[in-house]
Specification:
The complex is a heterodimer of chains A (about 160) and B (about 170). Chain A is of the alpha+beta class and about 160 residues long. In chain A, about 25% of the residues lie in helices and about 35% in strands. Chain A starts with 5 loop residues before the first strand and ends in a 17-residue tail after the last helix. With about 170 residues, chain B is of the alpha+beta class. In chain B, helix 2 packs across helix 4 and helix 4 packs across helix 5. Chain B is globular and about 45 Å long. In chain B, strands 1, 2, 3, 4, 5, 6, 7 and 8 form an 8-stranded antiparallel sheet that branches. The chains are: A alpha+beta (about 160), B alpha+beta (about 170).
Chain lengths: ~160, ~170
């Protein structure tokens, strides 16, 4: 039986430092993350708020901030009725130089068996990571309609 | 072979600023695959029952298979058998499906690698390492005109597991 977690790897033509900035700045995240702003001072132990159109959708606490190699935070969903009673999970970004490119490994773990949020984030992350890659490589993020993600109850 | 007996072991989704036709072409034509897939040429006879081959840069056939489902530009399913001695005999055939969907103005590409039996994480580490590199590079090629020449080697744990099962990898 595999662990209830989601892992996504992508390779990006960029530098670890630029990728770190993109993962920690609202200026970037608003463009590739469905309009989401990331509010935190990124110090270990500090809070993180994910804010979409003025609503805090997710909250967390910074666990690791080893710029520009590794960033992790807890992740608690706050708005959608179907998910918000689930316990906090954990998001980890690993950034590695791979030849001329950067290998980004995202893992999102710590879900209960049968988690509905796990299904939701498994559909959301590929869109966010794809758009992030486009933004860093071509300067233009992707306009992906939320309805295309195929998340149950989200249109 | 009944494809209903196959279950996805690896699923990878990537969104690409391109048309479904462009993505289909990139997945099925050697002139594209050579750029994003470590120099490998995809040679596909795009009809059900047609041959599907990935030819290595040295001219040898590295992956051979057959087209199982072909619905351009939406869905392609092929058998994807690496030509390592005893591989198919020991692990069964590997099925690869590409699903191409319009998602607003971009394309959602989903790759599913399926098997008709349980496959160990050691063996699957090959696909888990390979697909993100191949498909990241394909996306870059279609969006920027430049593929990523990502240096890849088969994971040690996969080679060790194959060797233990008596599957040659040379």
């Amino acid at each position: 039986m595999s662990k209830p977690e989601f892992v996504y790897v992508t390779y990006i033509e960029t530098t670890p430092e630029k990728l770190w900035q993109a993962l920690t700045s609202s200026e970037f995240s608003k463009r590739y993350w469905f309009g989401t702003e990331l509010k935190s001072d990124w110090k270990v132990g500090s809070p993180l708020d994910l804010v979409m159109n003025g609503t805090t959708t997710d909250t967390g606490e910074i666990l690791e901030a080893d710029r520009p190699r590794r960033l992790s935070y807890t992740f608690k969903h706050e708005t959608n009725e179907a998910y918000r009673n689930e316990k906090a999970s954990k998001v980890v970004f690993n950034i590695e130089q791979h030849g001329k490119f950067v290998k980004l490994t995202l893992s999102h773990e710590g879900f209960a068996e049968g988690s509905k949020l796990l299904d939701g984030i498994s559909k959301g992350w590929p869109a966010i990571m794809s758009s992030l890659k486009s933004l860093l490589e071509s300067g233009t993020a992707l306009e992906i309609p939320v309805s295309a993600l195929g998340i149950e109850g989200v249109s | 072979m009944n494809i209903k007996n196959f279950k996805p072991a690896i699923v990878y989704t990537i969104y690409i600023a391109a048309t479904p036709e462009k993505v289909w072409q990139a997945l099925t034509a050697a002139e594209f695959s050579r750029q994003y897939f470590s120099g490998f040429a995809i040679e596909a006879d795009l009809k059900v029952g047609g041959a599907f081959i990935a030819r290595a840069p040295d001219g040898s056939v590295h992956i051979s298979g057959e087209v199982i489902e072909c619905d351009p530009p939406s869905k392609l399913t092929v058998t994807w058998n690496v030509n390592w001695p005893a591989l198919v005999e020991k692990l069964g055939p590997t099925l690869v499906t590409y699903e191409i969907e319009q998602a607003g103005e971009v394309v959602k590409l989903t790759m599913l690698q399926s098997h008709d039996r349980d496959i160990s994480d050691d063996i699957l580490s090959g696909g888990r390492a390979g697909w993100p590199a191949i498909l990241s590079s394909l996306k870059s090629l279609l969006e920027t005109g430049q593929a990523l020449a990502i240096k890849m080697a088969p994971p040690e744990r996969m080679l060790a597991a194959l060797k233990e099962m008596g599957i040659g990898t040379l």
